[in-house]
Hints:
By secondary structure, this protein is an alpha+beta fold. The chain has one domain. Helix content is 24%, strand content 29%. It is built from three helices and six strands. The protein has a six-stranded antiparallel beta sheet, covered by helices on one side.
Amino acid sequence: MKRSGKWVPAALVSLACALLAANAALADEPAAHAAGVWQKHDYSFAFMGFTSTYSCDGLADKLKTLLIAAGARADAKSRAGACASGFGRPDKLARADLSFYTLAPDSPNAPADAKRVEGTWRPVNFSVRSPRELAVGDCEVVEQFATAVLPMFTVRNIENHTTCVPHQESGSEINLKFDSFTPTPGAPGHPK
């Protein structure tokens, strides 16, 4: 049986192209450990849900938990926004004002005087009782957090299978996973 040698160069070219594409994709992401700089974010979160209602201070507490769990710096602030109901009373249009820092990979565009912190990728999983304060009734808050706040973080490998059924907890599921670029353990600002 006689074989043609033409398949070898074609296979090598295909393999080389695949390796180059893989290296290009990896070049877009920071290495396992890389320098990062803090970026400040201010955001007014307006919660509009069908199933659960929150007081403005209760919403602020829940959002601070999500911020820290997602990798925000430990000094994240979440304050009750302007609400029609008083302190501790549920409000159909609860608001919270967020002020927090996220770690972004160092880049040539970063200010020269910015303090560099060593960062790494950390897996994050939001589900019922992860973090501990999260319950099925928080499904819509997690859903809105994923679309409005999570884009402010440096994340990758997002798997969002959160399903919220309006007006009932039955059938709702919190299932949000991603890798977040955060300070290495022991670095200043590392979430505890």
